[in-house]
Amino acid sequence: NDTGQIVIYSRKSKFTGKGESIENQIEMCRQYIRLHFGEKAANGVLVYEDEGFSGGNLERPQFKKMMAEAKEKKVQAIVVYRLDRISRSIVDFADFIDILESSGISFVSATEKFDTSTPMGRAMLYIIVVFAQLERETIAERVRDNYYARVRKGAWGGGPAAFGFDLVRTTIDGKKATICQPNESISVVQRIFELYSRPHTSLADVQKQLIHDGVLSSGGVNFDNVKLSSILKNPA
Fold first, then answer.
1. Is the pLDDT of residue 17 over 90?
2. Considering just the CA atoms, what is the radius of gyration of the chain in Å?
């Protein structure tokens, strides 16, 4: 396909406005296009940018728009700064390459030299993507392990505080963290558990007793079954 548009695709996981990372990606791609396709092609290139989107999947607005153009054979070549800008998933990347090949579209990484027209070049391409996916999963596992380690030391796992508790900033092992501390409403929580633990007691029975005692929820209203159930089921 020698008549379509040459396009640049860039992606950055975190949204930080018009960041330097995106600009650098595009400039490196322009230099490649200028060298291999000519100055005119470099000046007329179309740029698709997705900022704030993970490489773990293809659910990105500008990527989808680019691929719609590619399927209509309006694209001659797609140039990226690096392979993982397209995807860190081997399955998604394989589908991407298949679409390009069926549409006669060239795919170029400005910083990695691959010839997808040969079996060896194609194999090397997939090997790189496999390691990119491994890196992503390793990072995710490390983040998850660190999260669990902080929770075991007493840090709050995230989300709003349960009824009867406040979230308080503190320091754990020299690092700032949020912990969960009981407040004045904890006695109400204890009363709810004590009432519900009695034999043959339903949520409705607990609700009636709390209303009789004049005990109100955080919103200054009577406890309903949903609120009581939420409190009783909350691991906190």
1. no
2. 28
